[in-house]
Amino acid sequence: MTNGLWNFWVDRGGTFTDVIGRAPDGTLHSAKVLSENVSSYRDAAVHGIRQLLGLGAGEPIAEGSIGEVRMGTTVATNALLERRGERTALITTRGFRDALRIGYQARPDIFARRIVKPDQLYSRVEEIGERILADGTVELTVDIDEARRALEAIHADGFKSVAIVFMHAYRYPQHEAAVAEIARSMRFPQVSVSHEVSPLVKLVGRGDTTVVDAYLSPILGRYVSQVEEELQVERTGARVKFMMSSGGLTAASLFQGKDAILSGPAGGVVAMARTGVAAGFGKVIGFDMGGTSTDVTHFDGVFERTLETEVAGVRMRSPMMLIHTVAAGGGSILHYDGARFRVGPDSAGANPGPACYRQGGPLAVTDANLMVGKLVPEYFPAIFGPQQNEPLDAATVREKFAALASDIGDGRTPEEVADGFLQIAVANMAEAIKKISVQRGYDVTRYVLNAFGGASGQHACLVADALSMKTVLIHPFSGLLSAYGMGLADIRAVRQRALEAPLDAAVLQTIADIAAEIGAEVRAEIVGQRIDAASLTTHITAHIRYSGTDTALDIPAFTAAGTEDIGSAARSMSVGALQSAFEDAHRSRFGFIDRTKTLIVEALSVEAVGGGANLEEKEFPEANAPLAEPRRRTRFFSAGAWHHAAVYTRDQLGSGHVINGPALLIEDHQTVVIEDGWRAELTTRDHLVLERAVPLPKRSAIGTHADPVMLEIFNNLFMSIAEQMGAGSRSEERRVGKECRS
User: Fold this and answer.
1) Rounded (5°) CA angle 256-295-415
2) Which DSSP category does 114 fall into?
3) Among residues 224, 156, 220, which one has the least CA distance to residue 192?
4) pTM
5) Residue 647 CB: number of other CB atoms within 10 A?
6) For 454-511, what is each residue's pLDDT tens digit?
């Protein structure tokens, strides 16, 4: 239902911003604009919305024309990566000023002889005399006068953001609450307190999460205010909601820094799963390749989340979609160091962008695709150059690759050089998919690869081949699928509470009591966003681990529908059922179970869900006419050989039409490369399904020649092996260390 209003779903990415508008008649319209263009518009998301509304520069948005704007944004992520957040002061227990800097003493690069730690987000640390022990004993009462003096000094020094992190405050928060009350009375604009932000055990993860929240929330708040101002929400009545890292939407006023790190990619995960199921595929690997990076995800009936993750060297304990990111996007810069080719990790971004963008940028993955003929400039919009009115610059790309081929000097043609870089990018992306599938015990060959993002269509078949996957799904909105996911997403609210108790009959009542308490909070938060309480579903998840280990698995405890009493729903729990579910999950993940160890319920998560859009994809009748002749003929270079290819546009295809590769399919927002040996069919739901029609040839030995492409591919493969061995050994070291200490 549109209620006679326009609704908008937006994904503000690092390079492009995608906007889908649902018109009052229910039809969907789309726009793609550059995320940064200070000379033409202040905010890309609002600029795209104004385009779809048909408004000129300075023309006001009509009152009552917009119902809801759902948005995912990389604003917080970019601020974290570039260290452009709010200047933040940390207040912590005396004696622990260096705890977050020391962290877990992990080695992110296991072969580095010189460890360079990432910069800390806080600029100043103040220690306060206070200490509560792990059992709740107050060893040292908080010194209120000392806390006030410290806060006054911080305030006088110009700090506007404060993070308060005390030992064991996740369970005993009274000292934190007292200091937070003083800070708020002094009118600090941002006060983040660990027992409110992340009430979970582990000082380092809880502390880092609190600092992240203090560091990013002001930046995020300013961006939210900017969007609401540009949309004139007080006059137009538009309701703005933002996507959280957990895959749920929340009101703009409730959007916090700790929830924003994966705001954009989370929308892609939702859409990847929902569109995969709609197309008839229950097991889906998401392959989201954009301009800056590639995100890969796994779905097998339930969304996979993690409570603890690390982004840009910062640990966080907050519910997030389980997404693995690699620096391989259309804008990833190509390097040759005299011995081997490298792709990324640096990116040309939107400005200057790849060399073909006509802004003096370096050679990037997009340029390599243009060089080998997989992109056709005539079918690209003329939005490049200083005035944003020129087509892709193929001549400059050819010149740069010719010069690079000359520098390499081993007889490679410019096309072979470009193809070599593409092989490396594909290998990097395939390794990323292995980390979220094969490495975790899933047989990736049984999955469909759901390819989306503006650059995915050019690489999907090659990535599938690298993984021996035989099916690729491309949705009609694949070039804007993260934005489409905003429309498919539910409104969600999540709370966690630490337990640290053995799994026995006594803990079941504790789980029920805590679930009832925080379940009321999350339900109230959702209802406060104009969602009918009867439509809600409340999920309770227990995070269970073996005693002496630090890896907790998410085990569904029970579910309450609508306004059902959580205490009544809790009666469905049993120790045996939870233990059995944990053992199944542990065996699947790690290959064994250990019944000699006690099970510990580390924490409890309660999530209320409701208000999702009910979008049913239209069924189209089978096409009556045969497939039309191609728009033109071309050729592209792939896997070391030239291939003659037909070029089709999406409007030529009807349901049931089949295209045999090699071919190019031009869509509104991307180019799909159908490689040799693949075939593509358009289904009755307008989904493009690509399947391997010819078995992959057997791989042969590559010889002993020092090939700069294979050198980089094997370098990455060997590093992947070392990282997996290191991950296993570090896990074993932690387990043995805990047993020795106990």
Assistant:
1) 140
2) S
3) 220
4) 0.81
5) 18
6) 889 999 999 999 888 999 999 988 888 889 999 888 899 998 898 889 999 999 999 9
